[in-house]
Predict the 3D structure of the following.
Amino acid sequence: MQRCCPPAKVVETDFEPAAGLLKAIADPYRLTMLATLATAEDEVCVCDFTDALPLNQPTVSHHLRILREAGLVTCDRRGTWVYYQLAADARARVDHALALVFRKKVHA
Amino acid sequence: MQRCCPPAKVVETDFEPAAGLLKAIADPYRLTMLATLATAEDEVCVCDFTDALPLNQPTVSHHLRILREAGLVTCDRRGTWVYYQLAADARARVDHALALVFRKKVHA
DNA sequence: CCGTTGCATTGACATCCATCGATGTTAGCT
DNA sequence: AGCTAACATCGATGGATGTCAATGCAACGG
């Protein structure tokens, strides 16, 4: 039987970091949080999320923690309240991860 | 006690579709497959993946199915072999989902 | 102080997901 | 037809993930 094809070369890049970043984003509530922070162009208090989302407070805190640990948001406690902000390079980091994936073949 | 802040407005967009698309991508092996298809700029045989990845054949098939159902790749059976190709609008669909999230406030 | 309020953390549970062995299906070869 | 090869599907299993009640902790007000 013939070969199936000219043996294609599977890329060997380590996509673990990129996958981790995308995993942190791949949730409707976390996307809502990111979008809110992006459109606000400013800090947003945690209570705004707990008020607006159909989630209990611990769950909101959980999602915010994931975004925080992914480096996509930063938080700042002032008094009793905690304010979240979109990390300056959040969009850039995601774009970079995608560029790593979708880049075309490099022509010599 | 004072209010925490001028009540920020949480966006009400439905991010389920976007999250679904990102979830389909948020895996290192699936990113590897997409990157391979992108750099190949051509079809890639399933056997190339089963050869190159440390996964059994059913697992490779599983990941390809997820990408297929997300509309990110297409497949074409020719004889015994099945060739996968990056969907033409794959990159655009992901970019659109991200644009939905990271768009700044619309100034009236 | 003491009670309250806002948020984080813990522990438990249910569900989803990645992986693989076994089996099914389709195509080619003799 | 019978055999083999390539890929898909099924079923089971272990690990990851989303959710919430209970608890902890820090900051304010009385």
Notes: Chain A has five helices and three strands.
